[in-house]
Fold each of these.
Amino acid sequence: MRIRTALVFLILLWGGHAHAQLSFSNLLEYQLGNLPYERPRDLSTAYNQLNLSYRYRYLKAFVKFESFTHQEAVQDYYQFTQRGVRVGNDRLAFTAGNFYEILGRGLLLRSYEIPGTLREDVGLRVRQGFYRDIEGFLLKYQSRAVELKALRGRPLYNSFPPTFEREARRPSLLDGVEASVRVVKDLTLGSAYLRNDRDDKISKYSTVFLNANLPFALQIYSEFAQQLRPEQDLFDFSEGSSHAFYASANYVAGPLGLSVEAKDYNDFVLLFNDPPQLIKEHPYVVLNRSTHLLEPDNESGWQAEAFLRFNAGHQLTLNATQAQNELFGRRTVFKELFAEFEYKIDEATALKVFADRSRDPFKLEEKRNAAGFYFDKEWPQQWGTILDVEYQTFERSFAPHENVKNYIVSFTLSRAPRFSAGALWERTTDVQLADNPVTDRIETKPRHWLGGTLGYKLNNQHFVNAFLGKRRGGPACTAGICYEVLDFEGLEVRWTSNF
Amino acid sequence: MIGLSFLIPLLLIASPAPSKIGNFRLNDLNNKSVTYVELKGKKVTVIDFWATWCKPCVRSIPKLVKLHEKYKDLGVQFIGVNVDGTRNLPKVKPMAHSLGIKYPILLDVNSQVMSELKVTQMPTILVVNEHDEIVAFHQGYRPGEEEILEKEIQKLLYPEAERKHEN
């Protein structure tokens, strides 16, 4: 299969034409180091991802080649993980191979890629690109008034790296169609149907949605998806039904911007869908790490966010979120209040301060409070500095006397367009992180992480980033997708190239 | 074997001709389907890939808004491509409004255009000439980047003045 893919690509290259375009991107990440308590300390691994595409008029051919090499040749892989051909233009296109698509807002189906982000599981210790694509066929028509999609393919279950067999990584076969029509200028109605065949067990789903621009700069979106079962009525919101409801509204007026969202998900874990989470995705590390993870098995709730801009360029952001889960007979309520104010001291200096209060009984964390600031100063000759200070404290509901404290201080120096360097220090009093699992005793002393980063742009095509030191892992969310980042101690060099 | 991994970027270190942008279609903030060709500037197009959760993106946008104001009547078009995905979609319009963005914002919910243009970091700002060739690729934002961006815009707007200046 690899040879066949390479041959097809070479034939396309040889058939080069003045109007044809070949483009590349490459990401290489080399690590010399390991998890904090694992041996050897100087483990050497490298991950490489090469994306090649060839475009000629209405034709595009593409491949993604990923490799992971380990100093002891354990779990190595070299694979064409994506390949395909797309024929068409911006209106009508047919894709055969790997593709990304969404139905509605992702309640039924969403495939995605988070370019530049890698995934590694603590148990498997194999790095891979962070994407969840579909392998199959997609026919898509888009115009101002109508959008039609028809697809058949196998979505990737990306918890398994490319070292696993295709059958394990792509266990489902999906058939789906979607039609959405702009019925009047400011109203779009749509519906989608999806059929999932997994191990000869068939499940069917449908969704309906509307998108409207209303008077007074009000915009609304609403979608209801459900599993089609003989015993379940249409628009069934009952406790036993398999459904997902999502609604959002936003409003802008003068210096004010508002968004409000609501959700009600039940028995809707499909492994290829991604319903909106309605949990704020924070740019601050302590808050991003403490995110509440959506449980589409049973979760309802709402989120409201307001932005207010002042004449002098100052800005206020307020967010309130609530989510309820009822799993295994236990009801938990996640609550969060967040406020951030950006004060523009002058054209070259800005100070952001934030405060956050939350509780997440699902994670057994209570009285979780955080605060911090982000000070940004521009200097002459395109130099810049950033000081970021964050503090968080919470109690665990099973050990309320143990008050966990997290601290982060980071400093970045940069000079546009080529250079940046930074240092990041973290400290925690969390005994769950302080303990060294290798020793018999239980360590309780606060734990520290200190790391330095260096970034350099070689030219328009090549960027190099390096990290040296200790990095704290934990949950992280990027582009709306949450995943686990592993702890790391050592040297990491990343080289990205684009053509 | 690990050493071999370094060969690929080394092989790519030569600078070939600039990549061209193919036409793409995305929805804007009012759910209207638009294409790159419909929006692009007569002389220069600046495409900013950004997200609501990205601190450097939010830092850079006021600078881009100023540049847009300065050059919008000279054949320069700015296009924001938001890559928030479905999680933050309802916040994009209010946030863009509060940041004072007046240029079009397109929603790349599946990161399709982002992948197509090989964008791997937020923000990434592309400067595109009238022939749809990417002439500058800014990964990340550092203070002062807007001054370099402005020079690149001027270079495309007034190529003769630039040549004289270089001589």
Amino acid sequence: MRLLLAILLSLGLIIADSRYNSLETTRSLLDTLGTPVYWVADLPLRLRDWSDKHLQSRPRLADDNERLQRENLVLQGRSQQMASLQAENVRLRALLNSTALLRDDVLVAELVGVSPDPLRHQLVLNKGTQDGVFVGQPLIDADGLMGQIVEVSAGSSRALLITDATHSIPVQVNRNGVRAIAEGTGSLSTLEIRHISATTDIEVGDLLVTSGLGGRFPGGYPVALVSEIERDPGQTFARVLAVPSAALDRSRHVLLVFSTADEQGE
Amino acid sequence: MLNQRAQGYWVILASFFVAYVLAVLPMPLWLQWARPEWVALTMIYWAIALPHRVGILTGLALGVGLDALEGAALGQNAFALVVVALLCLTLYQRLRVFSLWQQAGTVFVLIGINQLVCQWVQNLDGVGARSLLFLLPAVSSALLWPLVLHLLRQVRRHYMVA
């Protein structure tokens, strides 16, 4: 009977997708078919952005232009030292016989949609396999790490944010290198930092960056700022909460990171 | 005759497409939990109005599509919509003669069941809701039922979908 078939099929799909992750190509295909839906749903926001850009007064545009030019100048000034700092870093690493330096290239992607389920923090982006996007690729915005790609189709992809309840990332305290794991809690403004014992040197306001362990996320990208520490003498681990650095719910343009190992070094 | 059948079908498909778009339309954060289940609402209407056209397999297909769109485990919404479709097919004769608010009450229960099934599957993945907020869509869907009913009824009569 049709009912039995439908129930068995849907239960089968649930098991296959949750437990065995074997349906990636099907999901990929469905994602490609579903692109028009997100495109249409994105229209109101795009219309608003378009009208913001094209219907603004000239003085306002001139002001914005000047402000952006100033910001650009400051940023370029800061990055002048980057070339020499990188070279010095490579030399020092070679002296210490460390592994090669990772050089990162970025690709700008635009947010096409957000997963409507409030429990799943997923973004839909407008770049896919045809742009070289791959599963596991890290995602950053102007302020910090956002997450990683979990699904790709031809022209779009889905990213999981670091605040999703099923996401964890190895981090270290920027100040002293203490290592920990930052787990998503399902809330866009909170990460829980695990494996911090009551005696570990960590304070409110500490910057947490990716540690590069685990091989998935390149090291050095800001992840979060510690916001709360609760040290209960009866517990083995302290309860540490942090606020993500990236503007997870506001960024419309994101960067996809391609890590390439440097030829020199080693 | 064949022409009329073909014409009817695209109207139903178009209404499902609109439901999909509404299901992923960006909403302000504070409204996120209250998003009505547009796809389920549309399916309930067509299942009651045309039970011989829209039924269990439609629910299955719609559910798989919604899963891919939402980023949920494939089969989650499929299972939920199959259950809702089954209930509609069993009850459509009675639902047709209910008053508007009785219908809305039934829709509340149907969408509530949809939400419960989805939460059950999500808990298998470890991403279940921590409060009863997940039932809020049942309330908002039930409140929107009179509007959906009226709108789709006009569409059905205008395009003579059968």
